[in-house]
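If you are new to this repository, start here. Below is one unmodified record pulled from the training split, so you can see the exact layout before writing a loader.
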Amino acid sequence: MNSAPVDDRLLSMDIRGARVSTVVVQRVPADRLQRFLELQRGFTQAAEGFEGYRGTEIYPPADGRLEEWVVVIHFDDQQSLHRWIDSAVRAEWTKKLVDEIGNFQLKTLPSG
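And here is the target side for that same chain:
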């Protein structure tokens, strides 16, 4: 019996079904980081209440990107994502985020 070693890179892969995502890029001053994370927790809890929500990923700044944080929010489909984007709940959280941290860039990915 031949037992070839398993490539560790294959073990860390996640293969997921189709979904849509929205990506937020926001500059977060170091002195506002704690508040930014608190707001993201609230944002995530609010999104969890929407049908089709699948998860949120938060990425800290990469080397050379200064204070740019990336937040990726996943939903099952375009309809679910748009219910969230168009909701009064999201508008409330967005206003808090802009008022306390600053403007951000938003991009919707039709898959992934």
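Two things worth knowing about this chain: The helical segments are 8-11, 33-48, 78-85, 88-100. The chain has a mean pLDDT of 85.
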